[in-house]
Write a structure and sequence with these properties.
Largest sheet: 10 strands, antiparallel, barrel
Strand content: over 45%
Protein name: Dicarboxylate transport
Low-confidence stretches: 1-8, 122-131, 813-820, 830-835
Mean pLDDT: 78
Structural class: mainly beta
Organism: Methylocaldum szegediense
Helix content: 10-25%
C-alpha cells in the first residue's frame, strides 16, 4: 500500500522542483542562444577559410534573434576578402532549435569587399572541405538552415590587380527551393549592367545580363546544369553566349590606368561538359571538355591600324591538372591599315593557321605552365598598303615553347624558343628587298615584380636589295636585342659582299617617352687591296662608277619621337645624321677618269640635306683636264622632289693653264633665279688648240672672262657668257696639211683664209656664249688683228657664229678643226657674194 502510493503520486514539493528545473533550463537556453548561434556561424565561416570573425548579437525574444553585425576576413594570396553584415533577424520555432532548423533569416545589409593588397605576403589558403560542391544548387539549397533567406541590400566592391573597380548592388531571396539574385553592377567606366540569376533544387543555374544603352537582348547569358554527385564527382554541363559589344566595358578595369578600349563588336559562344571532384581537393580526377566560337571586330580610332577582325574556333579538354587546347582551322586574324590604297572592302593582312595550333596548360605548384607544340605555323597572307607590298610569310615554331605564369602575382616567364620565318619579299615603287629564311631566337621573355624583360636574336643568312631594277648588296644580317618595361636596346651586324663590307649598328628606344636613338658604323673599305675594285666588291654593281684605289668609311646617328597615340594628330618625328669620308679615291665615272678624290659629306633630315659637302680632286678629265678642283657647299632637296636648294661656299679649279673660281651664292633649282657666276682667268689658247692635237695649228694668248650658269634640277645652261683675250693679245698660225692643203690650191676663198691665218697676230679675241637646257651651245667670236707676212700687213677682222652641242663637243674636243672649217666656210660664202 505504501509503495503503491509512493510511485503513483509525486509529492507537491518535488513537482515544484521539476518545474523550477525546466524553467531554469529554458532560461539557460534562452541566455545561451546568442553564443550558440555565434559559435555555429564562426564554425561554418572558419570552414570556409574566414578568419577574424566578429559577431555581435542581442538577447533573443521568444521566437526571434537579432544580430547587430557580422564581420569576417579571408585572404587568397595577396587578395583580401572582407564580409560585413548588419541588421540580421533570425526567426525560429523554439521546439525546432535542437534540430538546427530556422524559420527564416533576414539580412538588411551585407557588404563584400575584395581588394588586391600588393604589399601583403602570400599566405596558405584554407577552404571549405565541401570544395566545388557549391556548384551543385541541390546541395547547398538543401543545406541551408532556414526555410527562407532574404537579403535586402547586397553591396559588392571588387578591385582588380591593376586598380580597376567593379561595384554591384543587389537583392537576394531563397524560398521554396529556389534562389534568386537581381540587381545592377558597374565597372570603373560607369557602364551599368542589369543582372538576374536564379537556381533551384533541380540543379540548374542561369545568369542573364543586360547592358544599359544596348538592345533588349542579353549581352551575357550563362546556363550551368549539375546532374548530381556520383563517386565523389559532380557532373556539370553548360553554355555561354556573350555580346562583346555589350560587355566591352567589363574589360576596362583590367587594363592599365589611363588606357581606353577601342570600339569592339562580336560574339562569343562556349559549351562545356564534364565532372568536378567534390569530396577533396585532388584535381587529378577533374575532367572537362569545351568548344568555343569567337568572332570579334575592333575599330581603331587612330593610328596605322584601322581595324582588326578575328574568327577563332577552339577546343579544350581538362584532365586532372592539365588543359589540352587547340585552335582549329579555319581560324583567322585580319587587319586593315590606314592609307588611300587600302580598300575598306577587303582586309590588308590575314593570319591563318593551316595546321592549327595546339598546346597544353598545366597547373603546377609554381603557377600555370603553358606549352605550345612545335611545328605550329601562322601564315601571313600578302600585304599591300600605301605603295608597299609584302609577300606571303609562314612563321613556324621550331621547338615547343614553354610559358610559366603566376596570375595572382602577375608574373610570367618564357623558356627559350625559336621561330623560323619563310623567305619573303618586301617591294615598293622603286625597289625591293628579298630575305631568305629568318630565325628569331627568344632567349629570355619574362615579367616579374620589376616589370617585363626580353632578350633574343634575329638572323638571316641572305638579304638582297634591288633598287630601280638593279640588284645591290647581298649579305648576312644579325640583330641582337634586349629590353624591359622601360627601354629596348638593339645591336646589329651586317656582313655584306661575302664579309668584305662590315656594317655595325646599335639602337635604343625608351618606351615611356616614345623617344629613341640609333648609331651605325661602316668599317673602312680599302679599294685595290687583293684586287678588289668597287664593281668587284659589290658585284653586280649597276651604276656607271668604279673605284680602283682609296678608302671610304661612314658612320651615322638618328633619333625619333613616336606619336603619343592620344588622338592629337602628332606625327612621327625623325632626325638623322650620316657622315661619309673618302680619301684618295681613284677611278672613273662612265668614261671620265679621276684621281685623288677626297670627300667629306654630312647627310641629315631624312637624307634630304647634305651640309657640308666638301670635295677635292687632284685630277679630273671629262675631255678637258681639270686639276686641283675644290668645292664646298650645302644642298637641300625639296620635300616634294621638285628640286634642290644649293648654297655654294667655294668652287675653284685649275684647267687649260688657268683657273676657274665661282662666286659664292644660293640657288633654287626648282625656281631658277639669278645665275651662278664662274670667273675664268688665265686660260691658255695654246693649250685649248693642243687638245685636238690637230697638225698644222698652233697659237698663243691668255683668255679671261665670266660664265653665268643657270642651274635647274635637270640641266645647267650658260646665260651671257663672255671670254676675251688678255692684252697685248697673241697669235694663231695655221699651216694646212694633207687634204686641206690640196683643197686650198683649187679654192680662192680657202686660200684667202689660210693665208690670213698663216701668221695672224691678234689684239682682239672676244667670245660670247649661250646654251640651251639641251646643251646646244651658241658661240659668237670676234677676231681682230693682222698678218705681217700677208698683203703688206693687211688688217684682218673676222666675226664667226658657231653652234655646237656641249656634250658632243666635250666628247670630240674638235675646237681647232671646228674653227678652221667654220672660218673657211664663212670666207668662201663672203667671197662668192662679192663675185
Amino acid at each position: 500500500m505504501f509503495a503503491a502510493k509512493f510511485t503513483g503520486h509525486i509529492p507537491r514539493h518535488r513537482r515544484l522542483l521539476i518545474s523550477l528545473a525546466g524553467l531554469l533550463a529554458l532560461i539557460t537556453i534562452y541566455w545561451a542562444l546568442p553564443s550558440v548561434i555565434a559559435e555555429f556561424l564562426q564554425f561554418r565561416l572558419a570552414l570556409a577559410g574566414f578568419t577574424q570573425v566578429d559577431i555581435a548579437a542581442r538577447r533573443p525574444s521568444r521566437d526571434e534573434l537579432h544580430i547587430d553585425s557580422i564581420q569576417a576576413n579571408r585572404r587568397f594570396g595577396k587578395r583580401l576578402l572582407v564580409v560585413r553584415a548588419s541588421g540580421i533577424k533570425i526567426r525560429y520555432r523554439p521546439l525546432e532549435l535542437l534540430s538546427g532548423r530556422l524559420t527564416s533569416i533576414h539580412i538588411e545589409t551585407a557588404n563584400i569587399e575584395s581588394r588586391f593588397d600588393e604589399a601583403a605576403q602570400s599566405m596558405d589558403e584554407t577552404g571549405d572541405e565541401s570544395g566545388p560542391i557549391v556548384f551543385d544548387p541541390r546541395h547547398w539549397l538543401s543545406e541551408l538552415p532556414a526555410e527562407e533567406l532574404s537579403l535586402e541590400h547586397l553591396n559588392v566592391d571588387f578591385q582588380t590587380s591593376g586598380g580597376g573597380i567593379y561595384a554591384a548592388r543587389a537583392a537576394a531571396q531563397v524560398l521554396d527551393g529556389k534562389a534568386m539574385l537581381s540587381g545592377e553592377f558597374r565597372s570603373s567606366a560607369k557602364q551599368p549592367f542589369i543582372f538576374s540569376a536564379q537556381t533551384n533544387t533541380n540543379g540548374e543555374f542561369t545568369l542573364n545580363v543586360l547592358a544599359s544603352g544596348h538592345s533588349a537582348s542579353p549581352v551575357l547569358d550563362v546556363t550551368v546544369r549539375s546532374e548530381g554527385v556520383t563517386n565523389g564527382a559532380l557532373s556539370v554541363n553548360g553554355e555561354l553566349q556573350a555580346s562583346l559589344e555589350g560587355i566591352a566595358d567589363l574589360l576596362k578595369p583590367w587594363l592599365e590606368s589611363g588606357r581606353e578600349l577601342p570600339p569592339v563588336k562580336g560574339r562569343l559562344e562556349s559549351r562545356w561538359q564534364g565532372t568536378i571532384p567534390v569530396t577533396d581537393h585532388n584535381l587529378d580526377t577533374f575532367e572537362l571538355s569545351s568548344n568555343h566560337d569567337l568572332r570579334i571586330a575592333i575599330e581603331a580610332p587612330n593610328g596605322s591600324v584601322r581595324s582588326v577582325e578575328s574568327q577563332v574556333r577552339a577546343s579544350a579538354s581538362v584532365a586532372g591538372r592539365q588543359i589540352r587546347w587547340r585552335i582549329e582551322e579555319p581560324s583567322t586574324l585580319s587587319a586593315r591599315f590606314t592609307g588611300k590604297s587600302n580598300a575598306r572592302s577587303a582586309p590588308a593582312a590575314v593570319i591563318m593557321f593551316p595546321k592549327g595550333v595546339a598546346g597544353v596548360v598545366e597547373f603546377a605548384p609554381e603557377g600555370l605552365v603553358f606549352d605550345v607544340a612545335a611545328g605550329s605555323i601562322a601564315r601571313l597572307s600578302p600585304i599591300e598598303s600605301n605603295g608597299m607590298y609584302l609577300s606571303a610569310l609562314d612563321i613556324a615554331l621550331t621547338r615547343t615553347a614553354k610559358f610559366l605564369s603566376d596570375p595572382e602575382l602577375a608574373r610570367w616567364n618564357f623558356e627559350p624558343f625559336e621561330l623560323l620565318m619563310s623567305p619573303a619579299t618586301l617591294r615598293w615603287t622603286s625597289g625591293e628587298i628579298r630575305i631568305d629564311p629568318v630565325s628569331l631566337k627568344i632567349n629570355a621573355l619574362a615579367r616579374g615584380d620589376a616589370g617585363w624583360e626580353a632578350k633574343g636574336e634575329l638572323r638571316s643568312k641572305s638579304v638582297k636589295s634591288i633598287v630601280q631594277d638593279k640588284r645591290l648588296l647581298t649579305g648576312e644580317v644579325s640583330i641582337k636585342f634586349q629590353g624591359d618595361s622601360k627601354q629596348f636596346d638593339f645591336e646589329s651586324v651586317a656582313a655584306l659582299s661575302q664579309g668584305k663590307l662590315l656594317l655595325t649598328g646599335r639602337a635604343r628606344h625608351r618606351l615611356s617617352s616614345g623617344r629613341g636613338s640609333a648609331y651605325f658604323d661602316l668599317a673602312p673599305v680599302v679599294f685595290g687591296e687583293s684586287g678588289s675594285t668597287l664593281k668587284q666588291l659589290l658585284e653586280p654593281w649597276p651604276y656607271p662608277v668604279d673605284l680602283h684605289a682609296g678608302r671610304i668609311q661612314a658612320h651615322g646617328s638618328g633619333s625619333w619621337k613616336l606619336p603619343t597615340g592620344d588622338g592629337s594628330r602628332e606625327a612621327l618625328r625623325f632626325r638623322n645624321k650620316i657622315t661619309v669620308k673618302a680619301e684618295g679615291l681613284t677611278g672613273q665615272f662612265k668614261t671620265i677618269p679621276f684621281k685623288g678624290l677626297d670627300a667629306y659629306l654630312v647627310l641629315s633630315d631624312g637624307l634630304r640635306k647634305v651640309d657640308p659637302v666638301r670635295i677635292s680632286i687632284e685630277r679630273l678629265d671629262p675631255g678637258v683636264p681639270i686639276t686641283w678642283l675644290a668645292a664646298e657647299a650645302a644642298v637641300t632637296a625639296h620635300a616634294d622632289g621638285s628640286g634642290y636648294h644649293i648654297d655654294l661656299h667655294r668652287f675653284d679649279a685649275n684647267l687649260l693653264g688657268g683657273a676657274v673660281h665661282a662666286v659664292p651664292g644660293q640657288w633654287d633649282t626648282a625656281r631658277p633665279g639669278h645665275p651662278m657666276i664662274l670667273n675664268v682667268k688665265g686660260l691658255s689658247l695654246g693649250q685649248i688648240i693642243a687638245l685636238e692635237m690637230e697638225q698644222g695649228v698652233e697659237g698663243s694668248g691668255t683668255l679671261d672672262g665670266r660664265l653665268p650658269l643657270q642651274i635647274a634640277q635637270n640641266h645647267v645652261a650658260i646665260r651671257g657668257g663672255e671670254l676675251h683675250a688678255r692684252a697685248p693679245g697673241g697669235w694663231i698660225r695655221y699651216q694646212p696639211t694633207g687634204g686641206a692643203k690640196a683643197l686650198a690650191e683649187d679654192n680662192i676663198g680657202l686660200q684667202f683664209v689660210t693665208q690670213a691665218l698663216s701668221n695672224l697676230h691678234y689684239k682682239t679675241l672676244k667670245i660670247k656664249a649661250d646654251s640651251t637646257p639641251k646643251g646646244d651651245l651658241d658661240l659668237r667670236v670676234e677676231l681682230r688683228g693682222h698678218n705681217p707676212d700677208w698683203q703688206a700687213n693687211r688688217p684682218v677682222h673676222l666675226n664667226l657664229n658657231i653652234q655646237e652641242n656641249i656634250p658632243m663637243l666635250l666628247h670630240s674636243l674638235s675646237v681647232a678643226e671646228d674653227l678652221t672649217e667654220r672660218v673657211t666656210r664663212q670666207v668662201q660664202e663672203g667671197y662668192r657674194k662679192k663675185q
